[in-house]
Amino acid sequence: MRKVLGFMVVIATFGLGSCFEGLESDLEKAIERDDRLVKEYLERNNIQAIETPLGYYYVKEESASNSNQIVNNDIIGVYYEIKTINGQLIDSYLDETKDPKIFKHSEGGLVPRAMNFASGLAKEGEVFTLYVPSYLGYQDYSYQQLILPNSNLEIRIKYAKVYSEAEIKAIEEEMILNYLEEKELTGFERTEEGLYIKILNASNGGTPAEDGDIVGFTFTLNQLGETQPIAEGKNPTSPTQISLGSESNLEFLNLSMTGLTNNTEFEVLVPSHLAFGVSTQVFPFQVRRDLFQKAYIPQVARPFEPLLFKAKIVDIR
């Protein structure tokens, strides 16, 4: 019963497990099946792992006794490898010459969930191997041949670094500056808040937009360095509209559009804290858009990465 209740929490926070909706007996059968398969795998391979109350197992491969314990709301950089207990590789990111992948240790912070849950057992620098029943992994979700439904997982994870919010902002600032240098882009001005704005085609006529105005605009929004838009609205006869200055707007919209006039075209490089904030992280990255399109996660934009916003104001009233 304890695991059933825990599984219900996971479903509520991830939105997966559609095949388990309904009777508790169906949940219990699914949990019993996965628990049995993981336990048999451990026994068959003579793996001495510690079972957690949630149902996953772990082995601490490398200790860091003098490091700080990871706690709730820590921002963590990790290296990892995810495969099924049958040996099928799902994702590998173990090259420590690269920057770690980042997520926030909080409710709904990471998919697969067990990697997030296990963070609370670890100290900075420690390495764990996790043995994860599917209800704490991807559940009944599938993606092509990469992720099959109800896959039980073996995950190796190094909790490499705990970041401060200031460090994250500095990392994103560096990403933006590197992008500008790599693309040889000029004309962007940094605002006090951390936006980089370039006016492409300033209009000399009309009244500058101010708080309370309804501003219509066309736009594309991309993860920095990627070509497929996260969102777009290109029809000038039916533009996206906001009430400028509203607290419900993404912060960068209020900051970048205030003072601009009608027909102005502009580009903005946006750090994540001025956009969508901390969204759920997903490993591997390539399934993120599919999870979003199926309404399993609330936001397609990745956390802790800048965005590129290109827009034209087409109406102010």
Automatic annotation (TrEMBL):
Domain (PPIase FKBP-type): residue spans on this chain: 73-163
Keyword terms, alphabetized: Isomerase, Rotamase
Record-linked PROSITE patterns: FKBP_PPIASE, PROKAR_LIPOPROTEIN
Chemical reaction(s) catalysed: [protein]-peptidylproline (omega=180) = [protein]-peptidylproline (omega=0)
Broad EC category: isomerase
E.C. number(s) listed in UniProt: 5.2.1.8
Transmembrane segments: none
Presence of keyword Endoplasmic reticulum: no
Protein name per the record: Peptidyl-prolyl cis-trans isomerase
A Pfam short name: FKBP_C
Superkingdom of origin organism: Bacteria
Protein family (similarity comment): Belongs to the FKBP-type PPIase family.
Signal peptide: none
GO MF term list: peptidyl-prolyl cis-trans isomerase activity
InterPro entries: PPIase_dom_sf, PPIase_FKBP_dom
